[in-house]
Amino acid sequence: MANSRQHDYRRYPKWMRGIQADVAAWEQDTRDGVYGLDSEEIFWRDLHPFLLERGYRLRPRYTPGWTPSWIGTDINPTYMEDSHAILLPGVMDARREDRSTVAIKWIPDEFHTRNEIDILRYLASDALRDDPRNHACPLLDTFSHPTISAGIFTVSPWLGTLINYPIRYV
């Protein structure tokens, strides 16, 4: 069965596609691991079943047994969402069962992060949550790693779309 993306010229127009030589090169790059998962991504991929049980679905790239979506097409991998690695190794976007996007952050128990969870919990406390001066991102959930006891995961609303906005005030 052919990849359904191959015939979707509305979403993947001709300028996103390559000739046979390009496709062969992209396939070779894929076999050579150019688009493979790095060690930080493997951390998240290995957590996929655990996070799914908690109600958080990671992108297809981080599903065990992932097959790149451009395989079987003439579409340049750079235009495929699952060809891109994560920007912040300790932070992963996920979808909740209600389809909202959240950020899951791994906070290892290290010197530079030792007080981070306490600060987040303080800012999310009942006393401060309703304070109009509190502009901290809400803390939606916290939970432990299934095998690493020295650290914690936090979940907050996804603010990734704010990355392109200039920060003018602190």
TrEMBL record:
This is Uncharacterized protein. The lineage of its organism: Eukaryota, Fungi, Dikarya, Basidiomycota, Agaricomycotina.
